Every structure is written in structure tokens, then in C-alpha cells.
Amino acid sequence: MSTAIIGAGHIGETVAHHLVAGGERVVLAASEPPETLAERLGDLASAATVGDALSAADVVVFAVWFDVEKSLIDQNRAALAEKIVVDPSNPVAVNDKGEFSRTLPDGVSAGSVIAALVPETAHFVKAFGTVSAPSLAEGAHRKPKRAVLFYATDDAKAQAAIEPLISAAGFDPVKAGGVDAAIRIEMFGDLHDYGGLHGRLVNRDEARGLVAPSPA
Predict the structure, then answer these.
(1) Would you say the C-alpha torsion 19, 23, 29, 34 has a positive or negative sign?
(2) Which residues, other chains included, contact 179 with Cβ-Cβ below 8 Å and sequence gap of 6+?
(3) Which residue of 14, 25, 134, 177 has the fewest C-beta atoms within 10 A of its own C-beta?
């Protein structure tokens, strides 16, 4: 299985680094093809145009800003048919003081918006943007217990693909729920470290307790 990573910013570069370190093959694409990054990552990484990356990969990670992701999906709908589409986006804007704010109405997740845009034959999963960029970079392969990356999907094929990728990246995968749970693992959500977890990464045991419904 190969993974296309569209975008070479903090999230894209970190995911690419973790996956290659875990033995996964990645194809990198950005507005300027990231050949230098691919060379640094070694033989399991290559650089391509967005179109060629989509054609070459089984899994597509859109590691770009939310509005850019919407445009890319619109421009490449046919190429996304049957693909596993991974959405790390967060519906946020940042002001000149470095402060973040949500750009979608209360109760509406980026995941629900993106899931509605991908082709019906695509397999959608929310993942890899469910912790802050520093936590994603620094939290891999934590000992003695690995940190968790939550994901959200209603699709069995997407679930079967994302769990080994999260594991290869050095984290434990824990399903937060279906797409309706995406808002919980996006920025400001109760399961995001920039939200209800207050900067804390959790292990699998802690995560399962947080995901499970409270007893009546």
C-alpha cells in the first residue's frame, strides 16, 4: 500500500517522516514538488505532481488547510474514486497574534464537510490532524505506553487502512466513532490536545475511557 501526502507543511512533513520510518511508502505532492524532502526521507519516499501522486497511491492524506482541501477535492474528484481519503484538516483561522478561532458554525465539523465532498465510492476517514503539530512530531513511539491518535470513520475499508498507518507512524489508533464524532477530535474538541485534553496526549486505556459513553 502506498500513501500520497498532499501538502508539505508541518503536518504533511511529519506524517511523511513517521510513515517512512515505519516502513511505509509515500508519494509527496505540493504546490512546488517537494523533491528535497523526498530525498531526505530516502528510498521509500518520492515526489510527484498532485495528479500523479493521486494516481500512484491507495491512500490520500490531504495535509493542507481546510479551504485548500475543499478546492483540491473539487478539482480531483475523478481521481479520488475508490481511494481511501484521510482528512487531517481543522476548520480554523489564525490572527496576527497567533490565536486560533473556528471558521465553521457550532456543531459543524470539517470532517462532515469533507466527507460530503468526496466521491461516493471513496472511503473517508478523519485522522492525523487530531493532535497539534508539535504533539504529532514529538509524541511518536512514546514509552512505556504509546500515545493515541484518534480517528473517525463510518467506512470499514477506511478503518482497515488507517489503523496500520497510525501504528506505523508510532501511535496507537483508537476510533472515536463515525464521522459524526469528527468534531470531538478536531481542534477545540474534547478529544483534541488543543481542546479538552489541555495539551495532554493519552494512552490507549485512557482514550477508551474518554471515548466510551458515560454510564447512565
Answers:
(1) positive
(2) 109, 111, 112, 115, 124, 126, 152, 153, 154
(3) 134
C-alpha cell at 126: 478523519
Architecture of the domain defined by 2-211: 3-Layer(aba) Sandwich (3.40)
DSSP 133-178: HHHHHH-TT-SSSPPEEEEE-S-HHHHHHHHHHHHHTTSEEEEEES
DSSP structural state of residue 8: -
C-alpha span between 136 and 131 (Å, rounded): 6
Question: Could you report the average pLDDT of every consecutive run of 10 residues in the chain (216 residues)?
Answer: 92 96 95 79 94 95 96 96 97 87 94 98 97 94 97 98 98 97 96 93 95 62
pTM to 2 decimals?
A: 0.94
